[in-house]
Amino acid sequence: MPASLPYSWSRKLPLARWVAGPLLVAGIFTALYASSADPASQPGGAPPAPYGRARRYWERMRTGPTGRIDWRVYQRFYGRKPDRRPTAEGFRMLAVPPQVLASSHHWALEGPEELPAPTREDFGPGPVSGRVNALAYNPADPDTLYLGAASGGFWRRRKGEIRWECLSDDWPNPRVNSIAVHPDGKTLYVGTGDFNHGPNSWGYGLQKSLDGGKTWDVAGADALSGYSLRRIVLHPDDPETLTVTAGRNPYESGFVWRSTDGGSTWAKAVPQGADWSDVVCGERLPGGGRYYYACGLGYHGGEVWRSDAQGRNWKKLQTPLRNDVATSGLQDSLELAASATDPMTVYLLSGRDRAVWKSRDAGRSWTELTRNFPGGPKVEEDGQRIPAHWQSAHHNFHLTCARRTDRKGDVLYVGGIDLVASWDGGATWQSLGKTYTDRAETHVDQHCMAIHPENPNETLVGNDGGVYRLVVEPARNRWSFDGSLNTGLTITQFYRAAYAKDNRNVLIGGAQDNASPYRTAAGKWAVTGLGDGGFCAVHPENPRVQYATSADLYIYTTQDGWTTRTEITPQQRVDYADGPGHPSWGTDTREFIAPIALDPAEPHLLYAGTTYLWRWDASQREWTPRLGGQLLSSSGTAPLTYIAVAPSHNRYLYVGNRDGEIWMSPDQGLRWRRLDREQAPLASGGVSGIAVHPRRPWEVVVAFSGTGGANLWRCANTTRDAPAWRKITGEDPDIALPDLPINAVAMDPRPPHTGYYVGTDGGFYYSRDGGVSWEDGTRPLGLPNVPVMDVQVVRKTGRVMAATWGRGIWSLDWNAFCPTAAVR
């Protein structure tokens, strides 16, 4: 499940009886999210739906106590022309010539390229990868496949190839929503953005290629920029006519757009504004022409429209969608499918209503098809007991129709948590994914499908685990999934990572919906944990001793490189005989992805953050709760988001919380004081990173994940009564850090007072002059344009490590920044 424990745990743990969070809708995003507390982080509260929790975590980190995000910073950043991005020739602070840098110092992918599934239930047999939003076959060459990753770019795989090739590494935004391929097989259209993740992932237009992906131009930048483009339809009889659905701009409603010249010019097709989630084109009518249908999310029953003029003129349809007090009239998961055999038949899905309807008269009347739908066991959401299939429907929803080959009729696929199919146009249904069993056939959380252009019994399935080939035999009621397409697809989304001190092979990271992938000393990848992984730690002297976390601050440890695993979550309370229980941290609030940190000098000590700091002593196998008895939140409700232990003097502890507060203890937690009180607030957003000087435990650099251009601060002496803070994001706009959330910060151990590295929502940046000027270390050094969530310098291996949100983990030779210094 997105960003939470897998479904199997939701049956066993009271904490996983989720309550749905609201969906982002254009124009109401801030009100929905800023005004509602998150029960997940409140003691005794029931968390909202899993993806709602991850979405809120992302947003809380970027708002802090203000409740506001300047979304325009993303539009400005993604809308920049590529030639405005710094290039290798523009580097001013490097100690080697650019040509030497370009030839010998580039980011190298560490992986994972083939990742086993942590368990069969929920995850399928593996291998797994990251979240996939869009899939397509090339109609002129069906052996060529295309894939759009949620935050990992646009990919192609051709016949005979065992790896995918990314064609979008130099795009401003790596998020892809939709794909359409011209019948000529060479013209490609790719819709940017990530509709299901909300307005922060908006796109900058439609990427178009006339040569199969070798070169690209942006089509519709003026009309479509600032929106996520969730669907692209090429008219079957005139492929130069495009219809695109757009939405998820926090300031303006989206529209359905139409172009008759291959994307050169655009006009609004449907006059009504909404978050338009889908558009489909039906089969040819007997007298010629085709019906178009479009649906949009929103209140008052949503929007469903039809065009009788092949996409030119539209009218709103009456639908069976619910518009009542129980749902607040909010339709947050609508999708359409045109019949593959009958031009008058269309299907409509509403995840909010947990139903699929069929119309045989082009939308004039509707019949529900899902009264006997196999929705799986009941779970709690919005105060109701609902079938598990529809949990987090606002994130996991798609409806796809294919043609039967043995007789006339439609095959329907409904994606939610599970993948469910009907061989007879909705009369009967069955689970294909077998999600709720220990023999699951595919990963949970379905997002898209693509039908083979010549064989409708073959499809591609995209979900939170990557891409799968599905082959069905409706006449014999047989089907099979093939997950081997995930091999070589490096789109894992990492929250955080940790590394062995002196072995490049050993690393571990916490991933979105794929637990905690780790790599052994032999270079082999495996997975531990469940649900969403989070912060991790590796023992500095014995790399076989490691720690991993899952959402809600479940903590696991191993003494043997994960051959065996022990849960050490404190005060565990078992509520079900067949369940592992759930973490109980007293009345403490904790973050969805909560921090841990290992003491580098006394690595038997592990710190974990709630609204207090806790310490685990592995030698005594016991927790010390609430160090110093100090509530580390002025509001009382902002949990810790980062922990740092001074490497030269481990009595100095630093923590930051999601309100942006910074606290320090000089004596391992006995006493605490807030460091930013004199200049509060230093920045917007939560504390996302704290780097402590390797020799001066009183000198720190702190990163914030807000917007406003003041997200990185340095304090030269935290022991003063009124510590002074200095902003180090650069003053000159041409050489300053971009105004984006910072997710991580690290100091260069060789010149720690001047060498800084940061991971941002827009990539990797570094400074060699103490933050006066900054350089782009993303594309100029070979790293894809992707959010960087974690940055660390591993001194003995001589590598700078970057864990990304959508392209796995990468490493860079330390000497790229200071080649004359010895690595010790």
Features:
824 residues, mainly beta, 4-stranded antiparallel sheet, globular, disordered N terminus, disordered C terminus
What do these coordinates show?
- The protein is about 5% helix and about 35% strand.
- The chain is mainly β and about 800 residues long.
- It is globular and about 85 Å long.
- It starts with 6 loop residues before the first helix and ends in an 11-residue tail after the last strand.
Shape: globular
Structural class: mainly beta
**Strand order in the largest sheet:** 1-58-57-56
**C-alpha Rg (nearest Å):** 26 Å
Total strands: the figure is 58
What's the quick description here?
5% of the residues lie in helices and 34% in strands.
List the helices and strands and how they pair.
Layout: H1 7-12, H2 29-34, H3 50-63, H4 72-78, H5 98-104, E1 108-111, E2 132-138, E3 141-149, E4 153-157, E5 165-166, E6 176-181, E7 188-192, E8 206-209, E9 217-219, H6 221-224, E10 228-235, E11 238-247, E12 256-259, E13 267-268, E14 275-281, E15 292-297, E16 303-307, E17 314-316, E18 334-338, E19 346-350, E20 355-359, E21 367-368, E22 378-381, E23 384-387, E24 398-403, E25 410-415, E26 419-422, E27 430-431, E28 446-451, E29 458-463, E30 466-473, E31 478-482, E32 494-499, E33 507-511, E34 516-519, E35 525-528, E36 533-538, E37 546-550, E38 554-558, E39 566-567, E40 596-598, E41 605-609, E42 613-617, E43 622-624, E44 640-645, E45 653-657, E46 662-665, E47 673-674, E48 687-692, E49 700-704, E50 712-715, E51 726-727, E52 742-747, E53 756-760, E54 763-767, E55 775-776, E56 788-794, E57 799-804, E58 809-813
Antiparallel strand pairs: 1-58, 2-3, 3-4, 4-5, 6-7, 7-8, 8-9, 10-11, 11-12, 12-13, 14-15, 15-16, 16-17, 18-19, 19-20, 20-21, 22-23, 24-25, 25-26, 26-27, 28-29, 29-30, 30-31, 32-33, 33-34, 34-35, 36-37, 37-38, 38-39, 40-41, 41-42, 42-43, 44-45, 45-46, 46-47, 48-49, 49-50, 50-51, 52-53, 53-54, ...
